[in-house]
Amino acid sequence: MKKSILFVCLGNICRSPAAEAVFFNLLKKQNIDSLYRVDSAGTGGWHVGRLADSRMREAAAKRGVLVTSKARQISLKDFNDFDLILTMDNSNLADVKSLSNEINAPYKAKIIPLLSYSSHTKLIEVPDPYYGGEKGFEDVLDLVEDAAKGLLLDLQSNN
Ligand code: 4NP
User: Fold this and answer.
1) pLDDT tens digits, residue range 113-149?
2) What is the distance between the alpha carbons of residues 38 and 19, in angstroms, rounded to a whole number?
């Protein structure tokens, strides 16, 4: 069975599509992408159907990472479709947990902040880069690259 991972932020146009693409890139490099299913979603629905923010796509492309996903909103089905739901900040975490309360039965997914897998930062949230400058997008990529490595090591050691 493929391990399935859903990255979640607010708009699904900056942080979570970057995390999805960075993690997928890591899997590709190790030729293990067929063992995992990765996706991303937003808690909000404002940008549904759109490509990721061009600033995020450009910053990622400079690091050799292609961000190709189109935004979608998280749904109740995701709680049983995915093994892991990884949130970017405390607000996403609270929103995802609150949404999970609408399910009246046990569900499959574990809900965990992405940065709990980091080893090079004490931050617990990936800051929202949407209203800031270019550096914010680089910071997001630095944080998700570190966490993606930790996540993969964790998945490989627990299977
Ligand atoms: P994201 O960033 O949650 O990392 O995709 C944002 C994108 C859009 C908005 C907020 C955050 N917005 O308010 O439209």
Assistant:
1) 999 999 999 999 999 999 999 999 999 999 999 999 9
2) 10
